[in-house]
Amino acid sequence: MRLDGKIALVTGAGSGFGAGIAQRFAAEGAKVACVDIDGAAAERVAAALGDNAIAIAADVGLAADVAASVAETRQRFGVPNVLVNNAGTTHRNKPLMEVTEEDFDRVFRVNVKSIFHYVREVAPLMRDAGGGAILNVSSTAALRPRPGLTWYNASKGAASLASKSLALELAPWKIRVNALCPVMGATGLLEHFMGVLDTPENRDRFIATIPLGRLSEASDIAAAALFLASDEAAFITGVDLPVDGGRTA
């Protein structure tokens, strides 16, 4: 029960890495607010976790929705002392000049602006409660970018650098901030990252670039998130933690 007594808010918790993080946190004793733009997906995850989880539908790029999700978490559970900014999206892997302004705006709205909104809402609450931990789900794209994903890579670079700067600025408030950098996983975005059909042959091409020989799984990301959110990581802040099977080595 490494998160016993903790209250966590996890965005993008309706599927993929976010669902895995929410499940592991709840199993380790945390009360979890599962936030997702797909309210039905968040409900499914929260229902499976029982009384220690709630579902909240919110658009993480919209300030009013973010404020409402934090207010509901406070009302139901209390002030969150763990925030996981996991919600993310990408443009399809394609040549640079084919990426539209709409693609760009959507990617930065979800991957970067959401961090801005949630930090503004949650950090003062954490400060007044004595501190907390913020995890931003970045990507190996921030450390070793792949061609065809330039503006996605840039958004994750922003998430990683913001995490380091936030760690410095929020340290006096006893708030730790770290970034997780997963390699590609078998999530709903995989085909967009590859830019080709999700076939065994196409997966094999990408798996060949990962020394441990497989894609990441939600359980891998959840285990790393658990460590960084727990008191075991009390002296760790401002790091990018690759969860990548050796991809960035």
TrEMBL record:
Q: Which InterPro entries match?
A: NAD(P)-bd_dom_sf, SDR_fam
Pfam assignment, any one: adh_short_C2
> What EC number(s) is this enzyme filed under?
1.1.1.100
- Gene3D superfamilies assigned: NAD(P)-binding Rossmann-like Domain (3.40.50.720)
Which UniProt keywords are present, listed alphabetically? Oxidoreductase
Q: Where are the transmembrane segments?
A: none
**What's the name of the protein?**
3-oxoacyl-[acyl-carrier protein] reductase
